[in-house]
Structure formats: structure tokens, C-alpha cells
């Protein structure tokens, strides 16, 4: 719905932004399809199978990959906003870009395993600057706080409850939270 509203309200927006919005929307849609496939595998195909918690199906691996790509795109988008609003202060934004690339690389290296990586890009914008940057900081924290909390809780569940897949339900939501934070922006 947010993507449709964006295209209706901002028909003359920069084509690059339109492309990013369309890409995030498409990846989010495909993520939903893969979550549905994973749910089918766990809940229908393996109904009553007590060992299913030890299995990571291919559709789960694909959702993790989609989450990584959506997260990376959103991190880069917010980082670019910070770069622009800070008058191209690379001292602030370079570490954010490096963290975004590092997180994507780590996820690609561990894709077949359970993913519990976390990102704290929402916190990295909490720097004291002029009033425009302060406003962006408040907005970024407000839009990213729930995403950060869910990511941390998913990580805690992954580490402390390795005998079940509760963390996976939260991980499925992370992609949606990142997409919504981006589209709300």
C-alpha cells in the first residue's frame, strides 16, 4: 500500500528513488511468497514431525537472502540521506557504509546456517549536529527502533533457544519492518 501511495503522491520524484521503491516493494513481495512457502513446509508438509525444528528449508534460506538485500538497500538509502544532509561529511557516513557492506558480506558467508546477525544503523545517526540533522536523527530512531528491537530479540532467541525456531518467526518480520521504515520515509 505504501508503494502505491508513493507512486501516486510523488509522480515526478527522482527516477532512481522510484526504482529503489519499486525494487524494495518487489523484494518484499517475493519475501512474503517465500515466508508462505516456508510456513507450508513447516506446518503442512511436516505436520506432526517433531524433528522439523532441526531443518532449515530452502525457502527459509531465500527469505534470509531477501532480508539481507532489503536491509542493505535500506541501510544504504538512510546512509545516503545522512550523507546529503550532513553536507557530504564522509567522516560520519563511511563507517555506516562499511557496516552495511560488512553485514551483507557476513550474511552471505553464513547463509546456510541460522541467521542471527544484528544491525545498529539506527543508533549510528545519533550525532549532535545542526537542527536538520537532529530532526533526521529523531525520525530515523523512531522509524528504526522497532526494527532494532525485533532484530535483537530474534538474535537472543536464536542464541538461547537453539532447539526451536521461535527466532525464525521474528526474523521473517525483520524484512517487513525494514521495508516499511524505508517506504514510510
From TrEMBL:
Keywords: Membrane, Transmembrane, Transmembrane helix. It comes from the Eukaryota. InterPro entries: DUF6534. Residues 121-185 form the DUF6534 domain. This is DUF6534 domain-containing protein. It comes from Antrodiella citrinella. Coiled coil: none annotated. The chain crosses the membrane at residues 20-44, 56-78, 136-159, 165-184.
Amino acid at each position: 500500500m505504501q508503494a502505491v501511495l508513493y507512486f501516486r503522491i510523488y509522480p515526478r520524484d527522482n527516477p532512481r528513488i522510484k526504482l529503489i521503491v519499486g525494487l524494495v516493494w518487489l523484494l518484499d513481495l517475493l519475501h512474503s511468497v517465500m515466508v508462505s512457502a516456508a510456513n507450508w513446509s513447516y506446518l503442512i508438509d511436516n505436520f506432526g514431525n517433531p524433528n522439523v525444528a532441526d531443518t532449515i528449508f530452502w525457502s527459509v534460506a531465500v527469505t534470509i537472502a531477501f532480508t539481507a538485500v532489503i536491509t542493505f538497500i535500506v541501510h544504504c538509502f538512510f546512509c545516503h540521506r545522512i550523507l546529503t544532509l550532513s553536507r557530504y561529511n564522509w567522516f560520519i557516513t563511511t563507517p555506516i557504509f562499511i557496516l552495511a557492506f560488512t553485514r551483507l558480506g557476513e550474511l552471505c558467508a553464513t547463509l546456510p546456517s541460522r541467521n542471527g546477525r544484528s544491525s545498529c544503523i539506527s543508533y549510528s545517526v545519533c550525532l549532535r549536529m545542526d537542527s536538520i540533522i537532529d530532526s533526521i536523527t529523531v525520525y530515523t530512531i523512531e522509524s528504526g527502533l522497532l526494527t532494532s528491537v525485533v532484530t535483537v530479540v530474534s538474535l537472543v532467541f536464536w542464541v538461547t533457544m537453539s532447539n526451536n525456531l521461535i527466532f525464525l518467526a521474528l526474523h521473517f518480520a525483520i524484512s517487513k519492518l525494514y521495508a516499511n521504515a524505508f517506504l514510510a520515509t
